[in-house]
Amino acid sequence: YPTDMVFFTTPDLLEIGGLPFVSPHEKPTRQEALKYYRRVADTFALDIRFDEPVRSLVRQADGTLVVGSAPKSGAPLTRMARTVVVASGAYDLPNRLGVPGEDLGHVSHFYREPHAHYRRRVVIVGGKNSAAEAALDLYRNGAASVTLVHRHAALGDSIKYWVKPDIENRIKEGSVGARFDTRVVEITPTAVIVDGPAGRESLPADAVYLLTGYRSDTSLLRAVGATINDAEGAPVLDPDTFETSVPGVFVVGAAVAGKQSGKIFIENGRFHGPVAIKAITHRIGKQ
Hints:
With 287 residues, the chain is an alpha/beta fold.
């Protein structure tokens, strides 16, 4: 999330574990949410291993799940488990444009904060919440110019209700540039080449943000043999338990949505965990 992001929802709809989320604001900030989550982790004494990405997930013939991880320091580790819950979110893999120049140093799929772009020219590709909020943030913090490039004829309907009229008015008055029905053809060190209703155009750019959405990483699930709906890029789950086609492997949170990450957000994804854990504890109780 951008450093100074404000959540769409109210504090009570972010609460987990029965702990109250107290905020002086109607809509809490990212910093407040991080403080709350740290308190949750401390209250429940969660055993969290940082800098230890999971590299493999294998199910043995007897049903045991083998989790292989690679700590930042030290030898690789192997853990045995009866159940594994994958809650890896939906922002691992950005939706790439597949155009020349996408991997240049001044191009990013993630927006953090505006200061580095003071008096600089920025092009943003996208037309939903991330793109709209980044454009407004950059405009209000001194970017020399901000231009939105969107492949559709208008901004997305899912943009937050207090953000949409703001960005539309800034576009209307010319404070934020916009190119609709327009696609990126190429990115160079100094410009973004686009093709739209007016033909081919070169938009000067010192920085480029490709805010075109994200999808979850299903490589571990595929490796363990879980069925994936390729059209949606999402695991096939039991809707009552969030268990995959592989016994003992569960998926919760935004990772259940694949390419449609916008369907799962904190308000509804926070209920997945209790459902999966209830199914797990019930099963263990029978063993």
